[in-house]
Write a structure and sequence with these properties.
mainly alpha; three-stranded mixed β-sheet; flat; Legumain_prodom_sf; Peptidase_C13; Legum_prodom
Length: 286
């Protein structure tokens, strides 16, 4: 949908050139093999198609992480540098080097990368007084973005002094863990229920991340899960498990009768959720 929107904008002359910074886990999957090279879009992402991005800068007062490593690196670089002297490629190479928690990627029209930051971010002199010149800040507290809710609760628990508060936080943390185990269990059980379609390599499907090519199959499974099983908007942890559907679809793509096998997998998912997830879960799975 994102790439269709960009294509529409290009076709309807909504921009001349467009630079896209995308911070998200598996953010490379939004552009890999999808973003055309001829629509004047240059995109960089926090990670490749199969890995997490990382949150950082935990703030004790606000009890949350204030940034993500990739975003912090490119934003702070923009603050430090003279936009008239640094190119997008200069910034990409620096951010790729400094982001050691994931693989920063680039997609689209690479010719745009040779242009200056000022063409897209405006004219500005470096904010040396704010960030100490060219010295690159070191991020020490990076955590997997998907595990941020767990880390926040753990930090709250570590900071708690009152025994009643500690007990409440311990129970909240356990409910978080229980919700995640609940979702993981049902993904595992569903995959085992379609062993006749995907073969015996169940552990591989459940633990490894294959590159997605059969997007139509994947979209069907994801949409079905969202509508019939667990609402993805209300249960964000489940997003961390959707790679399993990608793996299922890649296994279904091997051999013949791909459409028939896909339809069978979708039907099994509907049936599984009707019998096992009709009541959902008692709280959001974070």
């Amino acid at each position: 949908d994102l790439n269709k929107a960009l294509q529409y904008m290009y076709d309807n002359k909504r921009y001349s050139q467009l630079v896209f910074y995308l911070e998200a886990c598996e953010s490379g999957s939004m552009f890999s093999k999808l973003l055309p090279k001829n629509i004047n879009v240059y995109a960089t992402t926090a990670s490749n198609p199969t890995e997490s991005s990382y949150a950082c800068y935990f703030d004790d007062k606000r009890q949350t992480y204030l940034g993500d490593v990739y975003s912090v690196n490119w934003i702070e670089d923009s603050d430090r540098k003279d936009w008239g002297k640094e190119t997008l490629l200069d910034q990409f190479n620096l951010v790729k080097k400094e982001t050691n928690t994931s693989h920063v990627m680039e997609y689209g029209d690479f010719k745009i990368a040779s242009e200056g930051l000022g063409e897209f971010q405006g004219d500005k002199k470096p904010s040396i007084d704010v960030l100490g010149g060219d010295e690159v800040p070191v991020v020490f507290d990076a955590v997997d973005s998907g595990d941020v809710p767990l880390h926040i609760h753990q930090k709250k628990l570590e900071a708690a002094r009152d025994e009643t508060e500690k007990q409440i936080l311990t129970e909240q943390l356990q409910r978080l863990v229980d919700g995640r185990e609940f979702a993981t269990k049902h993904f595992h059980q569903y995959v085992n229920s379609i062993k006749h379609l995907v073969g015996e390599q169940i552990d591989t499907i459940l633990t490894q991340k294959q590159e997605l090519n059969n997007r139509e199959c994947y979209q069907q499974l994801v949409d079905t899960f969202h509508e019939k099983c667990l609402n993805l908007n209300e249960n964000p942890f489940v997003l961390r498990k959707l790679y399993i559907f990608a793996n299922v679809c890649e296994e279904l793509s091997r051999g013949s009768d791909v459409e028939i096998k896909t339809e069978d997998a979708v039907d099994h998912l509907v049936e599984y959720c009707f019998h096992n997830l009709a009541k959902g879960y008692q709280q959001p799975i974070l």
